[in-house]
Specification:
The chain is α/β, with parallel strands linked by helices and about 190 residues long. About 60% of the residues lie in helices and about 15% in strands. The protein contains 8 helices and 5 strands. α1 packs across α8 and α4 packs parallel to α5. The N and C termini lie close together (about 10 Å). About 30% of the residues are buried. Bound molecules: BIS(adenosine)-5'-pentaphosphate (AP5) and magnesium ion. BIS(adenosine)-5'-pentaphosphate binds next to α1, α2, α3, α6 and α8.
Length: about 190
C-alpha cells in the first residue's frame, strides 16, 4: 500500500502531479481543495462556509477537513493501491491527526513529497491559471496571503515528516514530465 502526501506551496503543481501519480500507481486522490470547491459549486451549506475562508486565502476549520479525510481513508476504491493526499495535512495538528488515524487502521504514511518551486514562478503560475480558473483565490492579493500562510503554517509539516524519516524534497521547476520522473523515482524507491 502506498499512502503518499504531496505537499508544497500554492501553485507548486500538487494537483497536476497527483493526476499523473494516480494514473501510474492506481491510487485514490484526496484533494481537500477540490472537494471544497465541489461543495462551493453545488452551493451546499459546507460550501458557503468554505468559500468565506477560501476567498480570503485562509484555511477552513479542521473539523470540516478531518471528516473528508476519514471518508477517503475508509472508503478506498476496490482496486486502489493506496491514496495520495493533496492539500492535506496543511498544519502540524492535521499531520498529527492523520498519523493517529492511520495507526488506528494499521496503515502508515509512505512518504511526504515536498514540491519546491520558487516564489515568482508560483505567482506566475497562479496568475496565469486565474485568467480562466474562476477560483476566487487566484488573484494577486489572495495569492500573496496564501503564500504567506503556507510559510507560517504548512512548512512546519515538512519538519514533522523529516522527524519521522519520511520526507523527500523534489525540484518542482521544469516541465511537468521532468518533475513527474523525479517523483516516480522517489515512489519507486519506496515500493
Ligand atoms: P488547494 O486547492 O489545495 O490549493 P493550493 O494549495 O493553494 O494549491 P493549488 O491547487 O492552487 O495549486 P497546486 O499545487 O495544486 O498546483 P496546480 O497543479 O494546480 O486549497 C485551496 C484552499 O482550500 C486553501 O487555501 C484553503 O482555504 C482550503 N483548504 C484546502 N485544504 C485544506 C486543509 N487541509 N485545511 C484547511 N483548509 C484547506 O498547478 C498550478 C498551475 O500551474 C496550473 O495552472 C498548472 O497547469 C500549472 N503548472 C503545473 N505544473 C507546471 C509546470 N511544471 N510548469 C508550468 N506550469 C505548471
Ligand atoms: Mg491543487
Amino acid at each position: 500500500m502506498l499512502n503518499i502526501i504531496i505537499c508544497g506551496a500554492p501553485g507548486c503543481g500538487k494537483g497536476t502531479q497527483s493526476n499523473l501519480i494516480v494514473e501510474k500507481y492506481s491510487l485514490d486522490h484526496l484533494s481537500t481543495g477540490d472537494l471544497l470547491r465541489k461543495e462551493i459549486n453545488q452551493k451546499t451549506e459546507l460550501g458557503v462556509i468554505a468559500e468565506s475562508f477560501i476567498s480570503k486565502g485562509n484555511f477552513v476549520p479542521d473539523e470540516m477537513i478531518i471528516d473528508m479525510l476519514i471518508q477517503s481513508v475508509d472508503n478506498q476504491s476496490k482496486n486502489s493501491n493506496g491514496i495520495i493526499l493533496d492539500g492535506f495535512p496543511r498544519t502540524v495538528s492535521q499531520a498529527e491527526a492523520l498519523e493517529d488515524l492511520l495507526i488506528k487502521r494499521n496503515k502508515k504514511t509512505t512518504i511526504l513529497i515536498d514540491l519546491q518551486v520558487n516564489h515568482q514562478e508560483l505567482i506566475n503560475r497562479l496568475l496565469k491559471r486565474g485568467e480562466t480558473s474562476g477560483r476566487s483565490d487566484d488573484n494577486l492579493v489572495t495569492i500573496k496571503k496564501r503564500l504567506d500562510i503556507y510559510q507560517k503554517k504548512t512548512r512546519p509539516v515538512n519538519d514533522f515528516y523529516k522527524g519521522l524519516n519520511k520526507y523527500a524534497a523534489i525540484d518542482g521547476m521544469g516541465t511537468v514530465n521532468e518533475i513527474f520522473s523525479r517523483i516516480s523515482a522517489v515512489i519507486d524507491s519506496k515500493r
